[in-house]
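quick one
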Amino acid sequence: MTSESPAGLFRGLFETHLHVTDLEKAMRFYGDVLGLELGLKETNRRVALYWVGRDRTTMLGIWERPPWAVSSTGKPVFSQHLAFEVAFDDLRAAIHRMKENGVELRNFSGQITDEPSVFGWIPAASIYFSDIDGHLLELIARLDGVPAADIGIVSLAGWNDLLRDKEGKASLSERALRSMAEPRDRDPISDLRDSLANPQRHEI
Ligand SMILES: [Fe+2]
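structure w/ fe (ii) ion:
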């Protein structure tokens, strides 16, 4: 993107819309379980429009038989994807609230866990869940630090290990344990990937 391009004037994504099979059932998920603020419900058009963000920054619409979709009986609802952004400092609390409301959380690999996955190239930490129609939803929190695309997708614990190593803050005992446990021909990336296999770590 260049500053001269149309995208140079875009402030962000304002709205996104999902197809749902039953408007009222979907509203129970988005309104009651997630707690989004309802902006407008139009019974005739079979749509509910919700505000997302404390300052109503983004709109989410859920549509039963959206008018732009081809109308036919038995039309399936295709799984779509969107992410709600949260501050990193709120990610643990958001995960806790989701679990309290009975929402099952998964990492990028689809494993049931409350340990977020980190995308090194952004960087950002994410956790996934589904609504009642199978749409793939996500909580995403941007992380401080420079992008590290070569890391790929790792657990948050793995990402934190990498940061500690980079900053030279790993304690001597940690370093000693690591050098005893693994041959030194391993590169840091392999170490990180191995550390992902440890599901007990919940460092947010
Ligand atoms: Fe996503």
